[in-house]
Amino acid sequence: MSQRLLIVDDEEAILTLLTFNLEQAGFTVVTTMNGESALELATKQTFDLIILDIMLPKMNGLEVCKQLRQRKVLTPILMLTAKVDEFDKIMGLELGADDYMTKPFSPREVIARVRAILRRAQAIFLHSVNTMEPQSVDSTIKIGDVNINSEHHEVRVQDRRVELTPKEFELLVYLAKHKGRVITRDQLLNAVWEYDFVGGTRSVDVHISNLREKIESNSKKPVYIKTVRRLGYKMEEPK
Question: Structure pTM?
């Protein structure tokens, strides 16, 4: 069965371009041109990925993303932004989008980005539902009060369950598995996002910020995910 994509954009030419190329690449595509219908479709139907423009009638893409995450819809979201809208890019990531692309873009780049996001999301899903075999020794990682169960895609801080997007979860697991090591932004980008793009390390910074908000008792004074100035990040046991 082909993977289902929801494409949301109010420019008919972009919808036509993306639909044609993604269907040629083997995907099943559903489209809509406004935010309200996008929210309804994404809530009531199952999609493997959502391509979501920010500038939409009735409800903008940022609000759609925010409401989907509030409703625990964790479908990966690739946001489309105008080239100059740096604030919107960062805001989209902070609201739970997995990645962004700027207009104009090439269909080939979109397909590559979509496949990379889906490949990572599928790897997480397959691992989390594979309950037929005994749980492996390293499927649970404990650092301080943070418990990460990669088998069931679950994170708890003390007894509180923490809801993470697929990208946030993957980033946390990678940092936890390399506890005590300084990981550069480029290394995180290549390991978790699987590709390079200009300005991509900003995605890492925003996702780190989101993780701190969710697992740290004081995100301004983190004890788990530390910034190593001019180098990157390091996850460690709290002192």
Answer: 0.68
